[in-house]
Design a protein that fits this description.
Blueprint lengths: L11 H26 L14 H7 L8 E3 L5 H7 L3 H8 L33 H15 L5 E6 L6 H12 L4 E7 L2 E2 L2 E2 L9 H6 L4 E6 L3 H18 L3 E6 L17 H9 L2 H11 L5 H23 L30 E5 H15 L3 E5 L15 H5 L4 E3 L4 H13 L3 E8 H4 L3 H8 L2 H4 L9 E6 L14 H4 L6 E3 L4 H13 L4 E6 L6 E5 L11 E4 L4 E5 L4 H13 L4 E5 L2 E3 L3 H11 L2 E8 L4 H12 L9 E5 L2
Parallel strand pairs: 1-2, 2-3, 3-7, 6-7, 9-10, 9-11, 11-12, 12-14, 13-14, 17-18, 17-20, 20-21
Antiparallel strand pairs: 4-5, 8-15, 13-19, 16-18
Helix pairs in contact: 1-2, 1-3, 1-10, 1-11, 2-8, 4-11, 5-6, 5-14, 6-14, 12-19, 14-16
Length: about 625
């Protein structure tokens, strides 16, 4: 609803709704706990018991267009948002009729139709996602709000601080809701935080913040109304710290040795349901028969949900890999016949690709460290700030996890961000968001959410840069299902891969070797999008196949010419795509030459070269006339 008043209207109907919402969550979770002991629910089970007032007081105030990001303790959030109880329970049972097809389980409930972006098993992992969702709404001109729920344990994570800063810096409509239950798993807050007033941390980022009694549903609703009204008026973030308590274990196997039973008993006496129910009955707004009727209705709904879940089927093993990547992708681009050629550099080819994409599609924007006023660390985006403005050439703080996660969120919400991470070394700070969100969301949500983000980064060894700026980690990322990993080596690929990547429904990582930026050559004036799936034979040969990519391509071509002087005719394959690998082209070449060497700038141990070599051993053993070889970086 649009919040037009800051005080709850506590008439009989609303009081009944609030109590029903809290009882519905409580009674449902009691059934979940029972099902867990019966081994009908497996894995982790984090119950919301004691915290119901927060979901009940806030979530019904959200409009349909508003977005909700939850935590792994999200059953209450899902029910309050309107996700059907049967679909929630079936998901917890791991059944195909669950709200995420049984793929997410208790910690990962999703419902795209209700803008419910699910829980996140990574503490604090949903915060950058929420920032990105709100950024997309801001850039698209909607008046939606993103509500982001998280526990107090998340405030120790860097992603918390990075997200608070970005939300305030960019003036984004995010309602941050900290459900402070006093314990991060089994460690009391004052043992882990030097400042236990969490709202103070948000105020340090100049975000309007307040503390509310999370056990009082009326106080929570009143605070939420103030927050949502303020966000509607200002478009800026708001922070609520809801102080609450969980009556049950952190998760169902937790022995709770870290707190006395008397502490739990004391908190139960002032729990949100007993407190509100007693007040409502003493005030004459509800009577005993009203409460009995509510409980009876909920019990019937739970019985239906159990029947729905238990009638569900497990997903067939044959389809378990469905939704790792999108089934439907655009057709490969048609390559225009080259016209007149111009002299250019790899750097300018990349810049031309970005310029073209931003001109063709208003949803495309570039974000990253120093991409705007500085012009990019490698001068790729120099001049683009003047051309497109600060909204679309967006300088970010030095907070790789935060802004990469924000780019992921913006992509989910319909934008087409190009996230630039300055170097591959820095990308390790964003690895959580890349691997645990971008690469997994489509599969965990059963195809409900895709992440069409493009992440660019410089890779490879430079000159006198020492160990921390000389890595080639693209092979690491090629290990991760759910990603596409590209390594453009030629001017044509530097110019053409980006647009094709932006049309892809899945996350695409583009690794640009630092030693290529100054490389000069001829490029067609009408150069445009290129295929990103196929390897290319850059030099035909008959005696040996040299397999390489990126910055090593031209070194390998030089090596092939040197071999030719010795009478060895080498074929050179440019992989172009590191995930997925085009093994068809590789195998066809080896079938002709009967020998293979992989040239890979990554480290030898656990390398991409090792992967290709093993695949050749599996599929082309009888085509080989000599042992496989590889040339890798020294360790």
């Amino acid at each position: 609803m649009t919040v037009t008043r800051t005080k709850p209207r506590l008439d009989t109907a609303h009081v009944r709704d609030l109590l029903r919402m809290m009882l519905r969550i409580r009674m449902f979770e009691e059934k979940c706990a029972e099902s867990y002991t019966q081994e009908k629910i497996r894995g982790f089970l984090h119950l919301y018991d004691g915290e119901e007032a927060i979901a009940a007081g806030i979530i019904p105030l959200l409009e349909d267009q508003d977005r909700l990001v939850a935590t792994y303790r999200e059953h209450g959030h899902a029910l309050a948002r309107g996700v059907p109880m049967g679909a929630v329970l079936a998901e917890m049972y791991g059944k195909a009729n669950g709200c995420a097809g049984g793929r997410g389980g208790s910690m990962h409930l999703f419902d795209a139709g209700r803008n419910f972006y699910g829980g996140n098993a990574i503490v604090g992992g949903g915060l950058p996602l929420a920032v990105g969702l709100a950024l997309a709404d801001r850039m698209q001109g909607t008046d939606a709000t993103t509500a982001c729920f998280f526990g107090e344990g998340a405030v120790a994570e860097g992603e918390f601080h990075e997200s608070q800063n970005l939300a305030k810096l960019w003036g984004l409509p995010v309602l941050f809701v900290c459900e402070n239950n006093g314990y991060a798993m089994g460690t009391r807050l004052d043992l882990t935080e030097s400042e236990t007033d969490i709202a103070t941390k948000a105020r340090s980022y100049a975000i309007t913040s307040e503390v509310v009694d999370g056990m009082d549903v009326v106080a929570v609703e009143a605070a939420a109304r103030r927050a949502l009204q303020t966000i509607a008026e200002t478009g800026k973030p708001y922070f609520l710290e809801c102080r609450t308590y969980r009556f049950r274990a952190h998760s169902m196997f937790d022995a709770q040795l870290y707190r006395p039973k008397s502490e739990v008993a004391t908190w139960r006496e002032k729990g949100p349901i007993v407190r509100f129910q007693n007040w409502a009955m003493q005030s004459g707004l509800l009577h005993e028969n009203d409460v009995s009727e509510i409980k009876s209705q909920i019990a019937a709904e739970i019985a239906e949900a159990v029947a729905f879940a238990e009638s569900g089927t497990d997903e067939p093993v044959a389809t378990l890999t469905q939704h790792v990547m999108a089934a439907d992708r655009p057709d490969p681009p048609k390559i225009a016949t080259p016209d007149s050629m111009v002299e250019t550099t790899y750097r300018d080819a990349v810049k031309s690709a970005i310029t073209d994409a931003m001109t063709r599609d208003d949803r495309v924007f570039l974000m990253g460290e120093d991409v705007g006023h500085y012009g990019g660390c490698y001068a790729v985006s120099k001049g683009l700030l003047d051309q497109f403005g600060p909204d679309r050439i967006r300088d970010t703080p030095l907070s790789e996890s935060g802004f990469t996660g924000a780019g992921i969120g913006a992509a989910i919400a319909g934008m087409r961000p190009i996230v630039e991470v300055m170097t591959v070394n820095f990308s390790l700070l964003a690895l959580d968001q890349i691997m645990n969100t971008a690469a997994t969301l489509r599969h965990m949500s059963n195809g409900q959410f895709g992440v069409p983000v493009v992440i660019r980064m410089a890779t490879g060894a430079g000159k006198q840069l020492a160990a921390q700026h000389s890595h080639s980690l693209e092979g690491w990322y090629a290990h991760i299902p759910g990603l596409r990993v590209l390594a453009p080596a030629t001017l044509e690929d530097a110019r053409g891969m980006l647009w094709t990547a932006l049309q892809d429904p899945d996350p695409v990582l583009i690794f640009e070797n630092v030693m290529l930026y100054n490389r000069q050559g001829q490029l067609a004036e009408n150069a445009g999008p290129v295929d990103i799936d196929r390897a290319v034979v850059r030099r035909a040969g008959t005696d040996i196949t040299l397999i390489t990519y990126g910055g090593s391509l031209f070194k390998t071509l030089d090596a092939a010419e040197a071999l030719a002087k010795d009478g060895i005719n080498a074929e050179v394959i440019d992989l172009r795509s590191l995930r997925p690998l085009d093994m068809e082209t590789i195998l066809a070449s080896v079938a002709r030459t009967h020998r293979a060497v992989v040239v890979d700038e990554g480290w030898r141990s656990g390398s991409l070269a090792a992967e290709i070599g093993m695949r050749l051993a599996e599929a082309a053993f009888y085509d080989l006339d000599a042992p496989l070889g590889r040339v890798c970086s020294a360790e």
